[in-house]
Every structure is written in structure tokens, then in C-alpha cells.
Amino acid sequence: MTIVTEQISTIDPTHVRDVMSKVPTSVTVVAGQPELTGERAAMIVGSFVFISLEPCLVGFFVGHESTSWPQLNKATVLGISTLASTQTQFCRKLGKKTADRFDDHFWTQGEFGAPLVTGSVASLECQIETVTRVGDHDFVLARVLGLGMSAKADPLLFHNHSFSGLAVAGKTQRP
Predict the structure, then answer these.
(1) What are the backbone angles phi and psi of residue 126, rounded to the nearest 5°?
(2) pLDDT tens-digit series, residues 58-106
């Protein structure tokens, strides 16, 4: 067996983004409100993943350049909301640093106190278990405290550098 121990070539980050854009991902919002500051913070992640039933664990990756993560990492409970295909405009608003991200009609408070996006496909309240450095990102492992879903919502997907819904019975649903 041969083990490669050195990098053979440099991979262009733009090319990586283009290739990975062909893999559809859910659009998920991670939000929290640290008790010490009382200021809510939120960020969009495209790397949310279910990990384990017992214990119930989920995870996501955060880029080291994130300006929201340092605040979210201080929250006791995080709200994780997977957006619906009808929430494209909210997603775009949340992506702007200068926007009022916490207009009350977009948010509800979960049973454990975390901010959750109203009308999302799935919502979870979690506590951070571990944060592990992985390349230019951190992997956040979180324990699920509570969760819920909307039976009628179609998930928002990011695919080929744009937002879309799922294809249902041969039709593509566009947000």
C-alpha cells in the first residue's frame, strides 16, 4: 500500500467551489443569544449533518473567517433551522452584515430558549459538545435537546451557485 505524504499539486479554490457547487446542500441557519451579552447572532451554514441517534448528535462546519461564530460559540443553546424553499429572501437578508437580521416576524423562541426561524423545514435546539479544528474550518459537534418539523415545507437547497427547491413529480419548485 502506498501512502502519499506530500501534496502533489495545488488545487485552485475557485475550481473547488465550482466542482462542489454541483453537490446540492441544505441551507441552514445557526442562531444563538449568549446570556452575557444578550445580543443575538446568526449565520448560514451549508454543511449541517445528522450524526447519531443515541446520543442524538448533529454537526456543522464554520469557516475561521466567520464574524458570527465567536458570538455564537458563547451561547448556552443554539437554534438550528433548515430553511424552506419559500425563505430565499430571508436567507439573502441574513447573509448581509448590515441588515436587521432579527426582525421579530422571522423568529420564534424555542422551548430551550434558542432563536429559531419561523416556518423552517426542521428546527433543533442544541448544546455544543466539541469544536475541532479541521483545515480552514472548525467542526462543531452538538447535542440535540429538542427538535421539530414542518410537514408541508419544501427545503431550500443551494445548488450550482443558486437557490432552488426539490424537484417534485418532474417539476422543479423555484423559490
Answers:
(1) -140, 160
(2) 999 999 999 999 999 999 999 999 999 999 999 988 888 766 777 768 8
